[in-house]
Amino acid sequence: MRVAVTNGGVARDMTITAERTAETLVSQDHIDAYDRDGAVLIKGAIDRGWLDRVAAAIERDIENPGPFCHSYDAANGQGRFHGNLRLWETDPDCRDYCFHSPMPALAARFFGASKINLFYDQLFVKEPGTVNPTPWHNDQPYWPVWGWQVMSFWLALDPVTAESGRVEFVRGSHKWDRWFQPKAFGDRVDQMQYEQNPDYEPMPDIEANRGDYDIIAWDMEPGDLIAFHALTLHGSGGNRRQDVRRRGYTVRYTGDDAVYDPRPGIATGLDDDALSPGDPLDGKLFPVVWRA
User: Is the pTM of this model over 0.85?
Assistant: First the structure.
């Protein structure tokens, strides 16, 4: 039997249930699509109970943002983007979702790993009329982690379509072995600029040359998940709807081969002074949440 690293019988029972749910939700076809394409849709993965708890946590964070908030007003002056990360450290509902929802067991199923670490969680809210796009990028160049078993689960809290800013992916780009130079998103005056890494390359203009790429995307309903690899190129349009929010909540997990790699160009807020380069991602900041 596989269980999360946690205390208490209730949490243990929740984890056993989550693992059984993972076996039902993720078929071999899902795993094959993830391996081949770098992203796959999982329909109806998160039930209403978890959705309500995450939605409440989102509203609390908007009202009283945590220390890693990165919000900005829309370019047209109508909407607003609200983003934050590491919510699990301060919000009990986010913590429970990251630790005890089906997510850790889902990651283990995709990886075939003997342990799963929580890397971090992140919030992306595009209010109605927030026309700012999320530029094309791949995630791992932003992060102090090296390894192949690094993935994200993007949860829809609202119906998501092309008009409201669904996430798009370049099929198979996780296998290109190309790391693109991070750039700041949004229109904040104080936004962080990233150190140039000589091992990275400039991001190609995918939006201007969409016909040259195999781009995949899915409309989503609340409770749907997209699982995607940390090197898969992705981006999203703005929320052009005036009547629909686009709340996305993403949790990132790592598997057996992930190690700490604080190289030039990574984002602040994910560095851990307790770890040395090459160390496994175990510890207070990147806790083990599941073991075989």
Answer: yes
